[in-house]
Write a structure and sequence with these properties.
alpha/beta; eight-stranded mixed β-sheet; globular
Length: about 180
């Protein structure tokens, strides 16, 4: 098993890593060149600090040079996409769905929502992803993936296993199979 941060160093061997706070690292190539980059880095640092306060080690990875999609950080050697959600519950769903394709794990920092509402939305989005994949004869592997949830007004870090969410979503999908039209 690799030490925390070892994978980041292997995947980005030409980067120089700098510890910016306890258990939080970034590359010197992430030094902001303009206001937009500064705001993005500060947002990711705020999100990462929630994880480090809960004993995780976070390596914020370099921005892609080609502008393509990628994950934001290694959290205990796992590719993790960090998302900040400031909109309504639909925005939670959209950010979750987008993050599914960017990292193995997902961290959602949510400005204001109920934990129950967030859970219902994530189950609903997972059900939709499963249904669409099934219609295209594809399968999606949710095993060994997790979702970190931090809601500003809750002040706790919640960790959900995507495999468990998938099981709930599959049960709901099976219940709502369209009935065959028996005719008039």
């Amino acid at each position: 098993m690799l030490d925390k941060g070892e994978l980041a160093k292997q995947i980005f061997p030409h980067e120089t890593w700098k510890e910016i706070s306890q258990n939080l690292f970034t590359t010197t190539s992430r030094i902001p060149k303009n206001e937009k980059e500064k705001e993005r880095l500060e947002k990711e640092i705020r999100q990462a600090q929630i994880l480090t306060e809960n004993n995780y080690t976070v390596y914020l990875v370099p921005e892609p040079s080609d502008g393509g999609k990628k994950f934001d950080a290694f959290v205990d050697n796992r590719k993790t996409e960090l998302k900040r959600v400031t909109g309504n519950i639909k925005a939670v769903g959209k950010n979750f769905r987008n993050a599914l394709h960017q990292g193995d794990d997902i961290f959602l920092s949510i400005k204001d929502a109920s934990l129950h509402g967030v859970y219902k939305k994530i189950v609903s989005e997972t059900k939709d992803v499963i249904t669409k994949a099934k219609n295209k004869n594809l399968s999606i592997d949710f095993s060994d993936r997790q979702v970190f949830i931090s809601i500003d007004n809750d002040r706790k870090l919640h960790i959900w296993q995507l495999k468990n969410i998938e099981e709930t979503a599959r049960k709901l999908a099976d219940k709502k199979q369209p009935r065959k039209n028996a005719g008039p």
